[in-house]
């Protein structure tokens, strides 16, 4: 790690010396007591002259770049809530903040009133309900295998992007989306909200080490080299369900066109994607949407 630590330090120094950079922070688990072999050194910067957000990975260091204007606009909670990477900002460890705005954003997030958190949670739940209703409508137009698979994919996506953050808002904490995600939601919310966490688990149909190994083997020939590498790191560290979660979601994201034309795929390709998506283990179609709907109610009722 010495080499990458040296590179990270040099990059930090260069960015702080750059006049265009108006704030810099370290994010993620690298360099903390939560670091593990899969942790990626990650920096977040706000820069003048940048028109849109941008990310780049060089020499093993991930650099997340945001326009300077966001450092100003995200001081307003309504704006930040709508467009900011809240979990990243909340966990950022400030390295350079001459204007103090990054610190103010963090203070704003840390000091949200119960009323504001309730409104934020309700917006997430409303968005989740809209997506689930739309998925039911789409499923009603066709009951073939593609529709069944896409309903499962939507249910998982709603659970991760709307329902999990809404659940954590009861605790006034923000989600992390690292490889260890399933292990994190068990640790953070499992004792307080067992039904909600159980719903998340049902949608992904984890299977421990054996399922993780099957999924890793199934990535071959599907253009998932980078995803397989990260999942293998999780597998080697013992985060088996984290590896499965990553591969299920990434397979759905990268190969959605294959899911839409399922019956036209070769048998070999169907078998690989079936393993990655977890078709034989997971709830499909209306069952997946029903579980997501129950999860929504459990989140709302703090169960």
UniProtKB/TrEMBL annotation:
Domain of life of the organism in this record?
Bacteria
Q: What is this protein called?
A: Uncharacterized protein
Name its species: Deinococcus ruber
